[in-house]
Amino acid sequence: MTFGKKLVILDRDGVVNVDSDAFVKSPDEWVAIPGSLEAIARLNQAGYRVVIASNQSGIGRGLFDMATLNAMHEKMHRAAAAVGGRIDAVFFCPHTAEDQCECRKPKPGLLQMIIERFEVDPAVTPVVGDALRDLQAGAALGFPTHLVLTGKGRKTLAAGGLPAGTKVHDDLKAFALTFLTSQDE
Ligand SMILES: O=P(O)(O)OC[C@@H](O)[C@H]1O[C@@H](OP(=O)(O)O)[C@@H](O)[C@@H](O)[C@@H]1O
Ligand SMILES: [Mg+2]
Ligand SMILES: [Zn+2]
User: Fold this and answer.
1) Cβ proximity of 44 and 50 under 8 Å
2) Domains located in the chain, CATH noted
3) Nearest partner of 113 among 99, 123, 102, 98, judged by Cα
4) Counting ligands in written order, which one lies closest to the CA of residue 94?
5) Model confidence over 30-80: pLDDT tens digits?
6) 185: confidence class by pLDDT, cuts 50, 70, 90
7) What predicted TM-score, i.e. pTM, was given to this entire model?
8) Which residues are noted in the entry as Zn(2+)-binding (predicted)?
9) 3-state secondary structure of 125
10) H-helix segments, 98-171
């Protein structure tokens, strides 16, 4: 049993929704990964808040604007609610690598904001991603890291160099089942 605020941090593209090397640029292109929204609902039922930490350089690249990103997130929130799930917040970095901001993963800026906003203890707050940079951001602040094999996850696993102790799961649904079982011990 863990004490303190129960919260899980998810990467978006490749974890919640299908990713694309051409970026996810519109609500039509935002398609949930099968089982991911149900996994969010299952985490909520077990008392966990779910928040997202996402790199959205498509904004900085001019591929889509804030109104479109908000429309994508409106679709995501509605789709989660349709299966009884709730995403409490979406933290995103709109910058490109060239902007050298503090919030683009692998920098931990987004995760630091989440710690402050939700008063969570990183040591007991899982970070789930499909890219190495997602995990590096988590490891930088002492979050337990979890790789899912959806999105870029298989390539990430093959490339190696994961933060020590990273757990690997087929998808978000498998993560939720394993994580919640581990919390019962
Ligand atoms: O997985 P999250 O963090 O939720 O979002 C990733 C997306 O913003 C995009 O990130 C881009 O990386 P660059 O920003 O071009 O390095 C590319 O990997 C795209 O394929 C991907 O859709
Ligand atoms: Mg991703
Ligand atoms: Zn940024």
Assistant:
1) yes
2) 7-184 (3.40.50.1000)
3) 102
4) 3
5) 999 999 999 999 999 999 999 999 999 999 999 999 999 999 999 999 999
6) low
7) 0.97
8) 93, 95, 101, 103
9) coil
10) 109-118, 132-140, 153-159
Kindly list the protein residues that place their beta carbon closer than 5 angstroms to ligand 3, a single-atom ion.
Answer: 93, 95, 101, 103-104
**Segment 1-12, tens digit of pLDDT:** 445 689 999 999
Query: What are the tokens at 135?
Result: 């995990």
Tokens 């349709």 belong to residue: 82
Distance CA 36, CA 46 (A): 15
The pair of structure tokens assigned to 17 is 């929704």
Q: What is the pLDDT of residue 5?
A: 87
Whether 19 is catalytic is no
Pair type for strands 127-129 and 7-10: parallel
Nearest to 105 by CA among 18, 15, 28: 15
Q: Is residue 65 annotated as a catalytic residue, yes or no?
A: no
Omega before 34 cis (within 30°)? no
